[in-house]
Design brief:
Two copies of one chain form a homodimer. The first copy, chain A, is mainly alpha-helical. Chain A has a single domain, classed as Arc Repressor Mutant, subunit A, CATH 1.10.10.10. Chain A contains seven helices and two strands; from the N terminus they run H-H-H-H-E-E-H-H-H. Chain A has a two-stranded antiparallel ribbon with strand order 1-2. In chain A, a hairpin with a 7-residue loop joins strand 1 and strand 2. Chain A starts with a helix and ends in a 10-residue tail after the last helix. The relative contact order of chain A is 0.12. The C terminus of chain A is likely disordered. Chains A and B meet through helix 1, helix 5, helix 6 and helix 7 of A and helix 1, helix 5, helix 6 and helix 7 of B. The structure holds a DNA duplex.
Chain lengths: 156, 156
DNA sequence: CCATCATAGACAACATGGTTGTCGTTCGGT
DNA sequence: ACCGAACGACAACCATGTTGTCTATGATGG
């Protein structure tokens, strides 16, 4: 084996960074500046039913305080709406705004374009085996991230 | 195409995180707590001739101030030595200590073990195609990171 | 020889994205 | 009616980066 394990890690990180950097740059070019991956991720979770900061924190495996900071950014940019929950005075209900959905759609489109350009570079079958290999290696951890019935962690 | 571009990005990130998390945990178990990837990277650069904070910053594409903070951590933990440069009173010469080399060796071994366990999971040929595909996708960006004759950027 | 410019590093302020801990308020189950 | 659990707010802190400013030193060219 000529390649080292550390190089493999750098390759994985490099490929991820290439995707994320291009999508962030693409969104910025479309008038959505400074949209970080965590913002997109949080909006998806909110759209998917995480309607409170505590719930969002559980889904993203971060503390509710960290989730609240992310939410504050999204609210400030108009991507998420935050209003009192009539049914529970402790909660502030969260909703993704039309603008937020715009960003999510634009991000998805950019990611998909990027994936298609990958397919052109390494071939459709090459991409399929790449994804299959990665799926085997990461096991179900990606699935776990997207599982709606999130397993609550020890945070808070 | 059933899979989305965003999922591909998550897979790449997940695989990277799996490697890094296991190596960090392994190093901690061997008595090197809190060694972050950036620490290993910085030590490699220092061992490779980046003997000042400014030079290290250039090689890692971060500001010299950020490099100096990383160096401060490494010095405090005894992984790097820092002493006045007799030939240039502005500089503080950097050297990786024997303890630092121990950490680097341990990290390499853990990364290589992990890569071998990947080979068991997806086969040696599967790993080879994975690496080839990633190399194609990232282009020369990884090479650029390791290039000794680093292209100075606009930082500072 | 010396004026000027570039560089090294120290220090401060700040941003981002996390963490813990504490607290008041509200909800819900016994 | 109570008490525990949960929500959100607030503060303090950490890690890792950024700028910007400053001093000391080195290098270069007239």
């Amino acid at each position: 084996m000529s390649r080292s394990g550390a190089e493999l890690a750098l390759l994985l990180l490099g490929a991820y960074r290439r995707m994320v950097d291009e999508v962030v740059a693409g969104l910025a070019a479309q008038g959505y500046p400074d949209v970080r991956p965590v913002h997109d991720f949080a909006m998806r979770a909110i759209a998917d039913g995480a309607d409170s900061a505590s719930e969002l924190g559980r889904r993203m495996s971060v503390s509710k305080q960290a989730a609240a900071k992310t939410i504050a950014v999204l609210v400030e940019r108009g991507y998420v709406d935050r209003e009192a929950d009539p049914a529970d005075a402790r909660r502030k209900r969260l909703d993704v705004t039309p603008l937020g959905f715009e960003v999510m759609r634009a991000g998805e489109a950019l990611f998909d374009e990027l994936r298609e350009s990958f397919a052109r570079e390494i071939g459709a079958s090459g991409l399929a085996s790449l994804e299959a290999a990665l799926q085997t290696l990461v096991g179900d951890s990606v699935v776990r991230i997207e599982t709606p019935g999130w397993v609550a962690q020890e945070l808070d």
